[in-house]
Write a structure and sequence with these properties.
- With 335 residues, the protein is an alpha/beta fold.
- The protein has 14 helices and eleven strands.
- It has helices at residues 13-25, 43-52, 71-85, 98-101, 110-124, 154-163, 175-191, 213-218, 221-226, 245-254, 267-274, 278-285, 291-303, 319-334; strands spanning 3-8, 30-33, 58-61, 91-93, 129-131, 134-136, 147-151, 166-169, 200-209, 286-289, 308-312.
- The strands form two sheets. Strands 1, 2, 3, 4, 7, 8, 9, 10 and 11 form a nine-stranded parallel β-sheet that branches.
- α1 (13-25) links the parallel β1 (3-8) and β2.
- α2 (43-52) packs parallel to α3, α3 packs across α5 and α13 crosses α14.
- The radius of gyration is 19 Å and the shape is globular.
- The termini are close together.
């Protein structure tokens, strides 16, 4: 059987409790909260709301970063959340995007992220660690919490296999692209003597369900533009058609991070369309269309060996309705 998770950007702390209760009831077994302090509500407060209003779903950041959160802060927050939930947490990490850009800072390097992961692991185990010239510790923690990396490029995929417990890959929705990314993670784990079969590997998809398949794609305009994240550093091994490389570079350059994924008309919502990228991005990164079309795409990936899906309905006009329909009309019918 496949597992399904979803991610929220918390833009109403009072509504979040009911949202997470509904998605858990709809068949989602893990729930993530995005971390971008300049645009959305505080992530760890939101995760606490999610923890207190779910019974079985795994809860965690999707994703936080090594810059705005000191590793001791992350370790203490995650250990507390893990204690609260009885051990049903995970820690999603990436190099950072809008949380940093909106503060005028640059994403972390892959090397910095590696150091951060190793530091957080030691802190969660209750050990002292040197960090940025000082000694950090969380003396009360004695916990192992799975670390899941958001991975797109070859270096992040390798890092996930070397030091993390899994990866959410945002590389595309065709089985060959997904499996190629999964294999890179597994190969790097073998290279360092780890067991690749214990890694939690998930595919990340932007989703929308509409009985009119054309509207299903059109309604994802702002989310399609946000897919620029996969290309923000480079297009190395990203399978971008040569004739679209210039447009993709413009998408990365012109995307307004201060308007990241709002559910209202914005500059970003029209950007992918203006650049002629809507079709490419929709085919590449979404599960969108009628319920049957969505089921077909999920089954295609399941047949190829994908067992974990992280879906994101953030850019849709009615996220809650889409997630409930996905639960009843896709998840319940593909198992």
């Amino acid at each position: 059987m496949a597992e399904f998770g979803t991610v929220f950007i918390a833009n109403d702390s009072r509504a979040l409790a009911e949202q997470v209760r509904r998605v858990e009831a709809s068949g989602f077994s893990w729930i993530g909260i995005g971390d971008t302090q300049s645009l959305y509500r505080e992530m760890y407060v939101s995760l606490t709301i999610a923890a207190l209003n779910t019974k079985k779903a795994r809860i965690g950041p999707l994703v936080t970063n090594p810059i705005t959160r000191h590793p001791a802060v992350t370790a203490s927050a995650m250990a507390t959340l893990d204690e609260l939930t009885g051990g049903r947490t995970f820690l999603g990490l990436g190099t950072g995007d809008t949380a940093l850009v909106n503060l005028g800072q640059r994403p972390a390097t892959v090397a910095k992220l590696r150091q951060y992961i190793m530091c957080v692991k030691e802190l969660l185990a209750g050990h002292e660690v040197e960090w940025d010239g000082g000694i950090a510790h969380t003396r009360w923690s004695r916990r192992h919490i799975p670390i899941i990396l958001a991975a797109e490029g070859p270096r992040m995929l390798r890092l996930a296999g070397e030091v993390a417990d899994g990866a959410v890959v945002h590389v595309g929705m065709s089985p060959d692209i997904v499996l190629s990314a999964f294999n890179k993670v597994k190969e790097s784990s073998v290279d360092v003597g780890r067991d690749p079969d214990v890694l939690e590997l998930s595919v990340h998809a932007k989703v929308n369900i509409n009985d009119d398949p054309r509207k299903a794609t059109e309604e994802l305009g702002v989310t399609l533009a946000a897919s620029r994240h996969a290309f923000r550093h480079n297009m190395e091994a990203k399978d971008v058609p040569p004739e679209l490389e210039g447009a993709v570079r413009r998408l990365v350059r012109e995307y307004r991070t201060a308007q990241h994924e709002p559910v209202d008309p914005s500059f970003n919502a029209n950007l992918a369309k203006k650049l002629g990228l809507s079709g490419f991005l929709a085919d590449r990164f979404t599960i969108a269309g009628t319920p049957e079309q969505c089921r077909q795409k999920v089954r295609e990936l399941m047949s190829a060996g994908v067992t974990r899906f992280l879906i994101n309905a953030i850019g849709t006009p009615n996220q809650d309705e889409v997630l409930e329909r996905f639960g009843s009309e896709v998840i319940a019918q593909v198992q």
